[in-house]
Automatic annotation (TrEMBL):
Domain Tetrahydrofolate dehydrogenase/cyclohydrolase NAD(P)-binding, chain residue ranges per copy: 159-306
The protein's name: Bifunctional protein FolD
PROSITE patterns in the cross-refs: THF_DHG_CYH_1, THF_DHG_CYH_2
Subunit structure: Homodimer.
Taxonomic lineage from the root: Bacteria, Pseudomonadati, Pseudomonadota, Gammaproteobacteria, Oceanospirillales
Binding-site residues for NADP(+), renumbered to this chain: G186, R187, S188, I252
GO cellular component: cytosol
Pathway involvement of the protein, from the record: One-carbon metabolism; tetrahydrofolate interconversion
EC number: 1.5.1.5, 3.5.4.9
Reaction equations catalysed: (6R)-5,10-methylene-5,6,7,8-tetrahydrofolate + NADP(+) = (6R)-5,10-methenyltetrahydrofolate + NADPH; (6R)-5,10-methenyltetrahydrofolate + H2O = (6R)-10-formyltetrahydrofolate + H(+)
Keyword Oxidoreductase in annotation: yes
Domain Tetrahydrofolate dehydrogenase/cyclohydrolase catalytic per the UniProt entry, residue ranges: 27-138
Length: 311
């Protein structure tokens, strides 16, 4: 059974035909993310909605500050109400829970994102579970996880990174992955596990490999679709990839270049794997921008549902 999935039909018009040559197709996440953002903006105008997104940042980690600022910019570009809450690194769990509670009750706010990681004195899971499930635009609440795993995908808010990855896979292979073998490398709650569930919902035959898996390259080499999400720079080399596979790189690793400058690299050794792949995502400019675009799409979806309920 083909499952009608996470994105509205309006986004399906963007599916691009697979390349006919043996040159690998670079799946351009930046371009796709820009197109999705434009469609979200149009939908906001057409429907006369003002989705509200609250992003909560605790502490002053510079990387988190950059991400949060980018999310706010994108939200404004979509015509959303965008609010950012900056809390000190010394914030207590009770204070953070009180803010989440007030946002749960705020009818102007349809999506709540608490930026991770959180300082050590705060129990991140407890905070995530305090977010109203229908405002959980990260898709991390147990209710949304449960919806995804049971196949109630239409009711779920899906985690942004797996949802963005699925969109890129759809560009290469279409939405029905019947007969395809997918290997997910990594088993985190924010990428690996929901990614496996989403691929399964699209009828792929899914294997998850991780740090305790013997002969991972041998298993990965069977895959028509590889999603790498472990945070090990350049882990996936030529021996891991079957010629013609679709390779998605979720890794965002900051490493030092030969000349000592900082560089962003993925979990895939792009230089050696790209010539083998039928389609591949770059880092940067692949999955990362899609994550933010899907956050915008989730916030639109959340707003639509909350407005429908209240009218
Ligand atoms: N509650 C929560 N939700 C998140 O979704 C969440 C989070 N916490 N904590 C941190 C991670 C990380 N994350 C990224 C989003 C976009 C890029 C992105 O746009 N990357 C660009 C490059 C950015 C750069 O240069 O650093 C790219 O890959 O092209 C990266 C990483 C969301 N996260
Ligand atoms: Mg990327």
């Amino acid at each position: 059974m083909a499952v009608k999935l996470h994105l509205d039909t309006e986004f399906c018009s963007m599916t691009i035909a697979p390349s006919s040559s043996d040159k690998p197709r670079i799946l351009d996440g930046k371009r796709t993310a820009n197109a999705i953002t434009a469609e979200v903006r149009e939908a906001v105008e057409r429907e006369g909605l003002t989705p509200g997104l609250a992003v909560v940042l605790v502490g002053d980690d510079p990387a988190s500050q950059v991400y949060v600022r980018n999310k706010g910019r994108r939200a404004k570009a979509c015509g959303f109400l965008s609010r950012q809450y900056d809390l000190p690194a010394t914030t207590t769990q009770a204070e953070l829970l009180a803010l989440v509670e007030s946002l749960n009750g705020d009818s102007k706010i349809h999506g709540i994102l608490v930026q991770l990681p959180l300082p050590a004195q705060i129990d991140a899971d407890c905070v995530i579970q305090a977010i109203a499930p229908d405002k959980d635009v990260d898709g991390f609440h147990y209710v949304n996880v449960g919806r995804l795993v049971t196949g109630a995908i239409g009711a779920a808010l899906l985690p942004c990174t797996p949802k963005g990855v699925m969109h890129l896979i759809e560009q290469a292979l279409g939405p029905d992955l019947s007969g395809k073998r997918a290997v997910v490398i990594g088993r985190s709650n924010i990428v690996g596990k929901p990614m496996a569930s989403l691929l399964l919902a699209h009828n792929a035959t899914v294997t998850v490999i991780h740090s305790r898996t013997p002969s991972p390259a041998e298993i990965c080499r069977q895959a028509d679709i590889v999603v790498a999400a472990v945070g090990v720079p350049g882990l996936v080399t030529a021996e891991w990839v079957k010629p013609g596979a679709v390779v998605i790189d979720v890794g965002i690793n900051r490493v030092e270049d030969d000349d000592g400058s900082a560089q962003l690299v993925g979990d895939v050794d792009f230089e050696v794997v790209a010539p083998l792949a039928s389609a591949i995502t770059p880092v940067p400019g692949g999955v990362g921008p899609m994550t933010i675009a899907m956050l915008m799409h989730n916030t639109l979806q959340a707003a639509r549902r909350q407005v429908a309920v209240s009218t």
